[in-house]
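Putative secreted Zn-dependent protease
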Amino acid sequence: MPSIAKPLRPILLLLSLTAAAIPAAGETITSKSFSYFSVGGRTAAELDDELNRRGPQMKNSGSRHPGATKIRFGGSVSYVRRGDKCYVGDARVTVSTNIILPRWKYRRSASKSLGLVWDTLYSDIKRHEERHAEIARQHARDLEQELKALRPGRTCDQLQAQVDKITAAAVEAHDKDQARFDRVEAANFNERMLRLLTYRLERSK
């Protein structure tokens, strides 16, 4: 039974805050890495300015953000001829995420109050970007299962066309989920930060 393996088209996404693991058998291959950019500033206003000037830049808008997540999907699908039909032999979707976070170079010398503000903000940025990465991983797992469950086609080219169609739809659904998450987070940003700051302040007493 001859088989043909074809790569999925790689997709690179850059997601932002708006306001490698070795897999077990059968698991989608995922990897996660972190990178950092340095910010200065001795006051809250200066920190805000530094984040706006030095944060990752979004290609679609040109604006900068305090954190971002680069996401790349890839993988391959193999096809097997059995009789007069073509089947998916195996499908493997990969996703790699690189989370970009700020690093404040004056954190150790900061006042207690400003340090509290920074720690709260940084934790929220990191949580937000980690969630972007998890959304991508979930979509990769779903896509892999959908590809493996494809019904056979009369030809492998026909099946490849189905794979391309499903992959494009999965990427579109992924993008919408990421955008929806950003909208919700942006709408709740001020309320969330106030709640987190109050909680940390009470714990520090």
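thats it. The longest strand covers residues 85-104. Residues 77 and 91 are 4 Å apart (CA to CA). bye
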